[in-house]
Amino acid sequence: MTMATEQTERPGRPVSKRREATRERLRAAAIEAFAERGFHGTSVEDLCERAGFTRGAFYSNYASREELVLDLYERQGAAINARLAEIGATADLEPRELLRQVMAVWGEEEAGAERRRAFNLLLGEFTLHAIRDPEAGAAWHAVQGRLRADTARLLQDYLRVRGLTVPVSSDDLARLLHVVVQGSTTQHLLDPQAGSAESLAESFVALLLQAARPTSAVGA
Amino acid sequence: MTMATEQTERPGRPVSKRREATRERLRAAAIEAFAERGFHGTSVEDLCERAGFTRGAFYSNYASREELVLDLYERQGAAINARLAEIGATADLEPRELLRQVMAVWGEEEAGAERRRAFNLLLGEFTLHAIRDPEAGAAWHAVQGRLRADTARLLQDYLRVRGLTVPVSSDDLARLLHVVVQGSTTQHLLDPQAGSAESLAESFVALLLQAARPTSAVGA
DNA sequence: CTGTTTCGATACGACTCTGTATTCGATACA
DNA sequence: TGTATCGAATACAGAGTCGTATCGAAACAG
Fold it and tell me: According to the model, what pLDDT value does residue A197 have?
């Protein structure tokens, strides 16, 4: 019931190389365009022009704009999760470095401010769309759920190894971290003069570390 | 240079009663519609139909959809600020109660879940729009700036009276609080099963209180 | 009660977007 | 080399939207 994505494909054929390349260009153009004007603000026309195709190409690959959006959801989600998994593997970092890594997942920092901006706008669009549309909501929820579970495990291990305890469940902690990381980036985009995006998130980490106590005191 | 809003009005006339009522209905309809479909997804037609007018009425009052959006920016901003000012006056509350009040500002909780949802979607739209459009960005920045300054003062007084210190500037603290409050609401909308919107924000407050130390240790 | 002003409704032309049906060129394969 | 297939371009019909220019009714002033 929730596996509706990509109806366009007949399961028999394995998707030719050319076709896949076309789609990739369409997706890239869509990411740009959506970041600039939002889902609703972007016409199929816009999007195809950017990609250097005509609408014929689009409708040959996707049944509707909505279907492309769902495709993007899954791919972006998978990309984020993959990057966090990498971090999980390389774990055992000091707090600041860990934060930097996590923020990089969110903001793709190495690619420069412009890309970070676009990525954040795209996330914002995703979020709004997920709140409005049940199908998108389910897809996004699945992605976020995995992400949060991984983050929670990461944090839990981290605290356990260091013998620290905080007065918050690791799930809530993961949620808070995501909220703060994304929120910090957004704040920075709204008001670039007020310090880097990291600095606000670092304040949160500072707070977190000061709230952490040795695990010894297990008694409630 | 930044006082462009409301060009439609000739400064001479004082805006008749009838006209003001019409605008109010248009604004109310716009809030609904924007929350449901976003700025770009809402046609002037949609909006007028909802308000029970034809497009003629709209163009007689606003030069463009964009102008209406800016009008909403200012009004919503003013409303938020006013409510926070009230809280500031009634201050001297315990942390949980203070948080509840602040969340009420954000989420208008008394008006029920549906309205909270709409309000949050609208805020999301505002934020994205502010990141994209310089003029909207300036307007939103002004509103947010006042809000943040008030919150910071509130928090600062609060901590000072209690003789507490946290390792973060009060400005950053205010930013964090806003980010967390808004983020918590958003999280709740994305995943209503995972506890109330307040519970996540409360976790943050718990963290914050545990991180707070008596001011005595000023040396450092 | 009458003349004037105000303000929303109506009518209109231009434009844009959508989705489909068809065409045509390129590529793969025998 | 000839032919079948695939995939993007083109052409087209229909719907929706925009902004304006004009009209008519209600509100208001004298």
Answer: 86
